[in-house]
Specification:
The complex is a heterodimer of chains A (113) and B (120). In chain A, 0% of the residues lie in helices and 51% in strands. Chain A contains no helices and 13 strands. Chain A has strands at residues 4-7, 10-13, 19-25, 30-31, 36-37, 39-44, 51-55, 59-60, 68-73, 76-81, 90-96, 103-104, 108-112. Chain B is an all-beta fold. Chain B has no helices and eleven strands. In chain B, strands 2, 4, 5, 6, 9, 10 and 11 form a seven-stranded mixed beta sheet that branches. In chain B, strands 1-3-8-7 form a four-stranded antiparallel beta sheet, with no helix packed on it. Chain B starts with a strand and ends with a strand. Classes of the chains: A mainly beta (113), B mainly beta (120). The A-B interface holds A 1, 36, 38, 40, 42, 49-52, 55-56, 61, 93, 95, 97, 100-107 and B 37, 46-49, 52, 60-64, 96, 104-113.
Chain lengths: 113, 120
């Protein structure tokens, strides 16, 4: 199985700051046939279902604010949230869909000071 | 508008079989490229992918649950199903169904989840 390791496990920031969440995979998620990275990011607010933010490592899902930016390639990926807002309080998960079983990171809890 | 809704027994006893139903709208599982997946989340913990079923009835399973999983669909009624045999307390979780597509196995639309408790 591909192991997804997220860091940090939690962080607290003030509104307006920029946040970086890291996700590392145990093997490359870059498929040479199409040069795409098979990685997605989700946001799960308290008491809610996960919501897709990013796929192909850097493509924002329709309706997702442009302050959410996905980057990285191969085994190292980053979700950057610029100008964090109070509504961004949530747990953020990465997911690889390069191979089955599809696996998720353990999550990063974002708290707003 | 794509919506999904899970339903299940709520509570069941160890060794029983868990049967879950996902009723969806806004897409068809007979359409090329469409798929539905099941993901679960124990309270306060992370996400675990369980299984996917596709428009052509292809199925993927998480081998960590060995042979306990069966996924199926009823295209005419816009439903997908998941059965887990021989449950125990470790299967206590919120179970989600979610839509995926053949473009890539991300989950773009999720149901609200159904809580399943395994307890004697």
């Amino acid at each position: 199985d591909i192991v997804m390791t997220q860091s940090p496990s939690s962080l607290a920031v003030s509104a307006g700051e920029t946040v970086t969440i890291n996700c590392k995979s145990s093997q490359s998620l870059l498929y040479s046939g199409n040069q795409k990275n098979y990685l997605a990011w989700y946001q799960q607010k308290p008491g809610q279902s996960p919501k897709l933010l990013i796929y192909w490592a850097s493509t924002r899902q329709s309706g997702v604010p442009d302050r959410f930016i996905g980057s990285g390639s191969g085994t190292d990926f980053t979700l950057t949230i610029s100008s964090v807002q109070a509504e961004d309080l949530a747990i953020y998960y990465c997911q690889q869909y390069y191979d089955t079983p599809f696996t998720f990171g353990s999550g990063t809890k974002l708290e707003i000071k | 508008q794509v919506t999904l809704k899970e339903s299940g027994p709520g509570i069941l006893q160890p060794s029983q079989t868990l049967s879950l139903t996902c009723t969806f709208s806004g897409f068809s599982l007979s359409t090329y490229g469409m798929g539905v997946g099941w993901i679960r989340q124990p309270s306060g913990k992370g996400l675990e992918w369980l299984a996917n079923i596709w428009w052509d009835d292809d199925k993927y399973y998480n081998p960590s649950l060995k042979n306990r999983l069966t996924i199926s669909k009823d295209t005419s009624n816009n439903q997908a199903f998941l059965k887990i045999t021989n449950v125990d307390t470790a299967d206590t979780a919120t179970y989600y169904c979610a839509r995926t597509t053949g473009r890539g196995n991300w989950f773009a639309y999720w149901g609200q989840g159904t809580l399943v408790t395994v307890s004697s």
